[in-house]
Amino acid sequence: MIELLLAGITLGLYAGFSPGPLLVLVISQTIKHGYKEGFKVAFAPIISDIPIIIICLLFLSLISGYDLVLGIISLIGGVYLGYLSYECFKTKGTMTEAPSKQPKSLQKGVILNLLNPSPYIFWITIGGPIIIPAYNNNPLSLLLFIAGFYSFLVGSKIVLSYAVGKSRDFLTGTLYLHIMRVLGGVLVIFSLYFLKQGIQLIF
User: Fold this and answer.
1) Which of 132, 162, 169, 190 places its Cα 20 to 30 Å from the Cα of 70?
2) Which of 155, 106, 116 minimizes the C-alpha distance to 8?
3) Is this model's pTM higher than 0.85 or not?
Protein backbone atom coordinates (compact mmCIF):
# COMPACT_ATOMS: atom_id res chain seq x y z
CA MET A 1 0.00 0.00 0.00
CA ILE A 2 2.87 2.37 0.79
CA GLU A 3 4.32 1.74 -2.67
CA LEU A 4 1.04 2.74 -4.33
CA LEU A 5 0.76 5.85 -2.16
CA LEU A 6 4.28 6.90 -3.14
CA ALA A 7 3.51 6.17 -6.79
CA GLY A 8 0.40 8.36 -6.58
CA ILE A 9 2.34 11.19 -4.94
CA THR A 10 5.15 11.01 -7.50
CA LEU A 11 2.82 10.92 -10.49
CA GLY A 12 0.67 13.67 -8.97
CA LEU A 13 3.67 15.97 -8.54
CA TYR A 14 4.79 15.30 -12.09
CA ALA A 15 1.31 15.99 -13.51
CA GLY A 16 0.94 19.12 -11.35
CA PHE A 17 4.24 20.78 -12.21
CA SER A 18 4.70 19.55 -15.79
CA PRO A 19 4.03 22.20 -18.50
CA GLY A 20 0.67 21.81 -20.16
CA PRO A 21 -2.47 23.69 -21.17
CA LEU A 22 -4.10 23.34 -17.74
CA LEU A 23 -1.04 24.82 -16.03
CA VAL A 24 -1.06 27.71 -18.50
CA LEU A 25 -4.76 28.28 -17.75
CA VAL A 26 -4.01 28.28 -13.99
CA ILE A 27 -1.40 30.99 -14.52
CA SER A 28 -3.47 33.11 -16.93
CA GLN A 29 -6.60 33.06 -14.72
CA THR A 30 -4.46 33.92 -11.68
CA ILE A 31 -2.88 36.89 -13.43
CA LYS A 32 -6.21 38.15 -14.78
CA HIS A 33 -8.44 37.55 -11.76
CA GLY A 34 -6.29 36.61 -8.73
CA TYR A 35 -5.05 33.38 -7.22
CA LYS A 36 -8.53 32.30 -6.05
CA GLU A 37 -9.51 31.84 -9.69
CA GLY A 38 -6.28 29.94 -10.26
CA PHE A 39 -7.26 27.66 -7.37
CA LYS A 40 -10.55 26.90 -9.11
CA VAL A 41 -8.74 25.78 -12.27
CA ALA A 42 -6.43 23.63 -10.13
CA PHE A 43 -9.44 21.72 -8.77
CA ALA A 44 -10.80 20.99 -12.26
CA PRO A 45 -9.16 17.53 -12.61
CA ILE A 46 -11.05 16.24 -9.55
CA ILE A 47 -14.31 16.91 -11.41
CA SER A 48 -13.32 16.13 -14.98
CA ASP A 49 -11.30 12.98 -14.29
CA ILE A 50 -14.24 10.98 -12.92
CA PRO A 51 -15.81 10.43 -16.38
CA ILE A 52 -12.32 10.20 -17.92
CA ILE A 53 -11.34 7.33 -15.61
CA ILE A 54 -14.61 5.51 -16.32
CA ILE A 55 -14.15 5.91 -20.07
CA CYS A 56 -10.54 4.74 -19.91
CA LEU A 57 -11.41 1.65 -17.87
CA LEU A 58 -14.03 0.81 -20.48
CA PHE A 59 -11.39 1.29 -23.18
CA LEU A 60 -9.13 -1.17 -21.40
CA SER A 61 -11.85 -3.79 -21.63
CA LEU A 62 -13.10 -2.77 -25.08
CA ILE A 63 -10.09 -1.29 -26.82
CA SER A 64 -11.57 -0.99 -30.33
CA GLY A 65 -11.93 2.56 -31.67
CA TYR A 66 -9.35 3.87 -29.22
CA ASP A 67 -7.32 5.94 -31.72
CA LEU A 68 -10.37 7.38 -33.48
CA VAL A 69 -12.05 8.60 -30.30
CA LEU A 70 -8.82 10.02 -28.89
CA GLY A 71 -8.20 11.75 -32.21
CA ILE A 72 -11.63 13.39 -32.18
CA ILE A 73 -11.15 14.52 -28.55
CA SER A 74 -7.75 15.95 -29.47
CA LEU A 75 -9.16 17.91 -32.45
CA ILE A 76 -11.94 19.41 -30.32
CA GLY A 77 -9.37 20.24 -27.64
CA GLY A 78 -7.19 22.02 -30.21
CA VAL A 79 -10.11 24.21 -31.24
CA TYR A 80 -10.96 25.03 -27.61
CA LEU A 81 -7.33 25.89 -26.84
CA GLY A 82 -7.42 28.24 -29.82
CA TYR A 83 -10.41 29.98 -28.25
CA LEU A 84 -8.62 30.33 -24.89
CA SER A 85 -5.60 31.74 -26.73
CA TYR A 86 -7.84 34.29 -28.43
CA GLU A 87 -9.10 35.38 -24.98
CA CYS A 88 -5.50 36.00 -23.88
CA PHE A 89 -4.69 38.04 -26.99
CA LYS A 90 -7.79 40.23 -26.73
CA THR A 91 -7.02 41.21 -23.11
CA LYS A 92 -6.81 44.99 -22.75
CA GLY A 93 -5.91 47.43 -19.99
CA THR A 94 -4.32 46.38 -16.72
CA MET A 95 -5.14 43.48 -14.46
CA THR A 96 -6.42 45.87 -11.79
CA GLU A 97 -9.51 46.74 -13.80
CA ALA A 98 -12.76 44.98 -12.87
CA PRO A 99 -13.54 42.02 -15.10
CA SER A 100 -16.38 42.66 -17.54
CA LYS A 101 -17.74 39.13 -17.11
CA GLN A 102 -17.50 36.17 -14.76
CA PRO A 103 -14.11 34.40 -15.00
CA LYS A 104 -15.75 30.92 -15.04
CA SER A 105 -12.36 29.49 -14.12
CA LEU A 106 -13.58 26.11 -12.86
CA GLN A 107 -15.81 25.67 -15.91
CA LYS A 108 -12.94 26.49 -18.26
CA GLY A 109 -10.62 24.10 -16.44
CA VAL A 110 -13.10 21.22 -16.54
CA ILE A 111 -13.86 21.71 -20.24
CA LEU A 112 -10.17 21.99 -21.09
CA ASN A 113 -9.28 18.83 -19.18
CA LEU A 114 -12.12 16.87 -20.78
CA LEU A 115 -10.88 17.90 -24.24
CA ASN A 116 -7.23 17.21 -23.42
CA PRO A 117 -6.15 13.75 -24.65
CA SER A 118 -3.32 13.57 -22.09
CA PRO A 119 -5.51 12.46 -19.11
CA TYR A 120 -7.07 9.73 -21.30
CA ILE A 121 -3.64 8.52 -22.40
CA PHE A 122 -2.39 8.61 -18.80
CA TRP A 123 -5.28 6.59 -17.38
CA ILE A 124 -5.19 4.05 -20.22
CA THR A 125 -1.42 3.53 -20.29
CA ILE A 126 -0.40 4.20 -16.66
CA GLY A 127 -3.28 4.84 -14.26
CA GLY A 128 -5.56 2.02 -15.41
CA PRO A 129 -2.91 -0.73 -15.26
CA ILE A 130 -2.09 0.49 -11.73
CA ILE A 131 -5.57 0.80 -10.24
CA ILE A 132 -7.14 -2.38 -11.70
CA PRO A 133 -4.78 -4.86 -10.00
CA ALA A 134 -4.66 -2.61 -6.93
CA TYR A 135 -8.45 -2.82 -6.59
CA ASN A 136 -8.41 -6.59 -7.08
CA ASN A 137 -5.74 -7.04 -4.41
CA ASN A 138 -6.74 -4.41 -1.84
CA PRO A 139 -9.33 -1.64 -2.42
CA LEU A 140 -7.65 0.47 0.28
CA SER A 141 -4.42 0.63 -1.73
CA LEU A 142 -6.45 1.97 -4.67
CA LEU A 143 -7.84 4.75 -2.47
CA LEU A 144 -4.32 5.60 -1.27
CA PHE A 145 -3.07 5.88 -4.86
CA ILE A 146 -5.99 8.11 -5.88
CA ALA A 147 -5.65 10.27 -2.75
CA GLY A 148 -1.90 10.70 -3.20
CA PHE A 149 -2.21 11.44 -6.90
CA TYR A 150 -4.92 14.10 -6.74
CA SER A 151 -3.72 15.69 -3.49
CA PHE A 152 -0.34 16.46 -5.00
CA LEU A 153 -1.63 17.20 -8.53
CA VAL A 154 -4.07 19.82 -7.25
CA GLY A 155 -1.78 20.94 -4.43
CA SER A 156 1.16 21.67 -6.72
CA LYS A 157 -1.01 23.78 -9.02
CA ILE A 158 -2.41 25.66 -6.02
CA VAL A 159 1.13 26.42 -4.84
CA LEU A 160 2.06 27.74 -8.29
CA SER A 161 -1.12 29.80 -8.49
CA TYR A 162 -0.49 31.31 -5.05
CA ALA A 163 3.10 32.18 -5.99
CA VAL A 164 1.94 33.86 -9.21
CA GLY A 165 -0.87 35.62 -7.33
CA LYS A 166 1.53 37.06 -4.75
CA SER A 167 3.67 38.58 -7.49
CA ARG A 168 0.58 39.90 -9.25
CA ASP A 169 0.93 43.38 -7.77
CA PHE A 170 4.21 43.80 -9.65
CA LEU A 171 2.55 43.03 -12.97
CA THR A 172 0.96 46.21 -14.23
CA GLY A 173 0.42 48.01 -17.52
CA THR A 174 2.37 46.82 -20.55
CA LEU A 175 4.15 44.04 -18.63
CA TYR A 176 0.79 42.46 -17.85
CA LEU A 177 -0.26 42.69 -21.49
CA HIS A 178 3.03 41.18 -22.68
CA ILE A 179 2.67 38.25 -20.28
CA MET A 180 -0.89 37.60 -21.48
CA ARG A 181 0.34 37.66 -25.10
CA VAL A 182 3.06 35.14 -24.23
CA LEU A 183 0.53 32.88 -22.52
CA GLY A 184 -1.72 33.23 -25.56
CA GLY A 185 1.19 32.19 -27.78
CA VAL A 186 1.86 29.13 -25.60
CA LEU A 187 -1.79 28.13 -25.89
CA VAL A 188 -1.53 28.47 -29.69
CA ILE A 189 1.38 26.02 -29.65
CA PHE A 190 -0.62 23.55 -27.56
CA SER A 191 -3.60 24.05 -29.88
CA LEU A 192 -1.53 23.19 -32.95
CA TYR A 193 -0.03 20.19 -31.13
CA PHE A 194 -3.50 18.89 -30.23
CA LEU A 195 -4.72 19.34 -33.81
CA LYS A 196 -1.65 17.55 -35.20
CA GLN A 197 -2.03 14.73 -32.68
CA GLY A 198 -5.74 14.39 -33.49
CA ILE A 199 -5.06 14.13 -37.22
CA GLN A 200 -2.32 11.53 -36.63
CA LEU A 201 -4.58 9.44 -34.38
CA ILE A 202 -7.46 9.50 -36.86
CA PHE A 203 -5.46 8.92 -40.03
Assistant:
1) 132
2) 155
3) no
